[in-house]
Amino acid sequence: MINVKHHTDELKVIEEIFAEKTAHPYLDVYIEKPRIDYDVILFLLEIIHSHQVTGKERREQILAALFINAAFFTHERVCNDMLETGERKPRQLTVLAGDFFSSLYYSMLVDNGHVEILPVFSHSIQKINEAKMALHFYEGDSERELMERLYSEEGTLLRNIADFYNESHLGTLAETFFLLKKLVNVRHETTDAALSTIHTAIYTCTEGEQADDVKNWPPENVANFLDRKIMELRQTLTTQLSSSYMKSTALYPRVMKWSLEDNRLWTK
Amino acid sequence: MDEEKQPMDEDGRDAIIISKVDIMKLADVYMLMKTDMIKIEKEIERSVKADHPILKEASLHLLQAGGKRIRPIFVMLSGKFGDYNIDRLKHIAAALELIHMASLVHDDVIDDAELRRGKKTIKAKWDNRTAMFTGDYIFAKAVEQASFFKDKDIHTVLSKSMAEICVGEIEQIRDQYNWDQHLKTYLRRIKRKTASLIAISCQLGALAADASRQDQLRLFRYGYNVGMSYQIIDDILDFTGTEEELGKPAGGDLLQGNVTLPVLYAMCEDESLKHEIHQFLSTNEREQQDITSVLDRVKSSGGIEYAHSLSKRYLQKAYDALEMLPDIPAKKSLHQIAKYIGGRNY
């Protein structure tokens, strides 16, 4: 089991390196700073901690995963709406910032000799983009297909890293956990802005029509769908957490809490 | 001299003017590499075949639109200076071409471009999000291709270059409409934007073929200098080319606020030009005659001649870098490509 004090120190170091590497004086003026999902760190610490990797190596792989998430988060903000000439610069820089964060994962892994795990990361990015494309062009055919794509978009990276380390049970748990977390956040958003790929796909599935923006999110059918799926995912999570092994992990209290109530974005 | 105008690489920004003799020599280079180029094409095509039908169509869309594949050519020719094995080299060539392709897909979102290589861009045919997912997918495919190699040096070179291209493009946007920038700023920007990927195409071809360290360095220098010369000529042509030659209106860089070498020199020679450009760009209702007047002032300032002389200096450095390489046919081909790239419109 992971030492909690060491854990907190490690989070701090990762946070500092992440901030330093993703900083760019010009981008910082125009682009929202990428956020760290601390649950990703928590899961990866658990997945990697019992394996033959040094603390430094583990940290580098975690940072690489965070850079990928930062790239996805940033590129998700590139919408389809038309812009006036004066509004183009933030969009242009959003595209480039995502590419920049993406290049950081590659250099973080190769500069520090993680060539073996590199295909796990690049393959995951491909799969996630396949899922994003499927969600983007989702026409409401099947709820099962929608859920498969959502699982894939939210959990592929951690699932594949867990498989690489022969920790598939943690990969399965991560898939459930991150999808639950995503759906809870989508359920509680009250945005009037342009919809993300996930919002649009869920809307299409439940409302039976496509839309780029929706007033008063979430509409009733969407809310009912999300409530149902959140409940199902909580039940799944509870089952997955029931083994004595899971109860002995540092993840257990955090994940268990999510199986009972909404925590939304976790900041320390 | 009998001249013919033709795009060198169908990037939209890469139109050039070259002599018929140079085109024929370049065609010979391509002909010599044809069999191996087909292998690379097949590798790229195999690589981008996604499961999702639209992702697959979008990825193949750009590939099938063609392109001169100048980066794979550099990889192959540089590989000839070592233990040439196309079944190894094709992975590095494919990786570099995929990086180039992915950046074009995202560039079209950045520039809000409708056409590329005479076809609708991915963002125009589908939408911005499709272009973003496709570009990200192709970037990941490039890394997958590079993963064929376990050699850390190959990955380090590639990853640095990927970061450098992004930073170069970010700086290009930062430096737009900055009329007080230094020559060094311009040179650093074109290095990152263009020369870097050409330089590492040569370096990685040699590295993947286990050529000597010295030859790797010579080939890197060659590629870097060819790339610099190439971009400077490209920037000149934005002032001297016609809309028909360029595939876009002349002065396009200036209209977007991009400060290139001819205008940088012209403003240095004549401070009042800075004021005129500033006024011209801040007016919403621009007349064609206004841009023509600005272009004429740049052309008569000596800026074009200065840029040509700097381009020539880089070209000479490229030839010098080739000098110490072993005398094999690939050396002659590299010489011909440099001449083709740099020797334009004199």
Work out the helicity level of chain A: 55-70%
Number of helical stretches of at least 4 residues of chain B? 17
Q: What kind of sheet is the major sheet of chain B? A: 2 strands, antiparallel
Tell me the strand percentage band of chain A.
under 5%
Distance between the termini of chain B: 9 Å
Radius of gyration of chain B: 20 Å
Question: Helicity level of chain B, as a percent range?
Answer: over 70%
Which sequence of SSEs, written as H and E, runs from N to C of chain A?
Answer: HHHHHHHHHHHH
In total, how many domains does the architecture of chain A comprise?
2
Count every beta strand of chain B, where a strand is a DSSP E run of 2 or more residues.
4
User: Radius of gyration of chain A, rounded?
Assistant: 19 Å
Shape of chain B: globular
Cofactor (chain B): Mg(2+)
Protein name (chain B): Heptaprenyl diphosphate synthase component 2
InterPro entries (chain B): GerC3_HepT (IPR014119), Isoprenoid_synthase_dom_sf (IPR008949), Polyprenyl_synt (IPR000092), Polyprenyl_synt_CS (IPR033749)
Catalytic activity (chain B): 4 isopentenyl diphosphate + (2E,6E)-farnesyl diphosphate = all-trans-heptaprenyl diphosphate + 4 diphosphate
